Amino acid sequence: MKSLTLNNGVKIPILGFGTYEILPVETKKAVLAAFKDGYRLIDTAQYYNNEREVGDAIRESDLKREDVFITTKTMTDGYYETKAGLDESLAKSGLEYFDLVLIHWPMGHDRDTWCALEEAYKAGKTRAIGISNFNSRQTMDLIKHSSVKPMVDQIETHLFLQQWKMHEFLEKAGIVHESYSPLGNGQQALINNPVLRAIGEKYGKRPIQVVLRFLVQNDIVTIPRSTNPTHIKANIDIFDFNLDKDDLEKLRSLDKRQPIDGWPAEMREDEDY
């Protein structure tokens, strides 16, 4: 598993397992399957209501706590609510610390929320802090009014919304670009895409594996989600091949700058993606 180094020296696996919209009753089983197949980064959030089950999976596995990387996200309610919410998340999960805590959405009181995350970071409750769904303007505002620079920005990124302007901005700012919804609206459109099928046949890989390889090969942390054991296993089987320059260009040409419905309007500004 390849890792990237955050701006505070902490290493983050480049491929992880997402748990968005996985029901709490299904979460432990799915995370245990992910652990078995080699995933070491697990992404959850207060909003997902499955932090407890992620913690249960860690304890039920044969893995040491220091061998897994656990991300959660705050509900972004300001200083006091964020501080209390993070302590509640630690209690629910049964963990002594998280590896990464993100502000889930920009909501207008982000500086206060960030102050709570800075305190948690300095207190050892999390090894790293970052943001999610922040555009370049919002990110710069946070940097200018904080003592700790965000280490990650998790934003919608997939074949049809590749986010190259944001990627360049984040790279220059020393912030790791993390993709959520890396498969876009679903697998069927990708499976049937003729470019993906042709590239997949060239490497003996499935179209979905080509997409995930494309993202991680561009140093984008990627967290595909599935409850299907076959898909969980296939999604991590992408580290035995490299896309060549021509294939990378073909995949880049498929960018439609097309977000999934519901993505924050401010993230659709031309200068930000």
Automatic annotation (TrEMBL):
Note whether NADP occurs among the keywords: yes
In this UniProt entry, which residues are annotated as the site Lowers pKa of active site Tyr? K73
- List the GO molecular function terms: oxidoreductase activity, acting on the CH-OH group of donors, NAD or NADP as acceptor
Q: Which intervals hold domain NADP-dependent oxidoreductase?
A: 18-255
Q: What PROSITE patterns does the database record attribute to this sequence?
A: ALDOKETO_REDUCTASE_1 (PS00798), ALDOKETO_REDUCTASE_2 (PS00062)
Does this UniProt record's set of keywords contain Hydrolase?
A: no
| Residues annotated for substrate binding in this entry | H104
* Alphabetical list of InterPro entries matching this protein: AKR, Aldo/ket_reductase_CS, NAD(P)_OxRdtase_dom_sf, NADP_OxRdtase_dom
Catalytic machinery residues: Y48
List the Pfam families hit by this protein, alphabetically.
Aldo_ket_red
Q: Give the family per the record.
A: Belongs to the aldo/keto reductase family.
Could you tell me what this protein is called? Aldo/keto reductase
Q: Which organism is it from?
A: Lactobacillus intestinalis
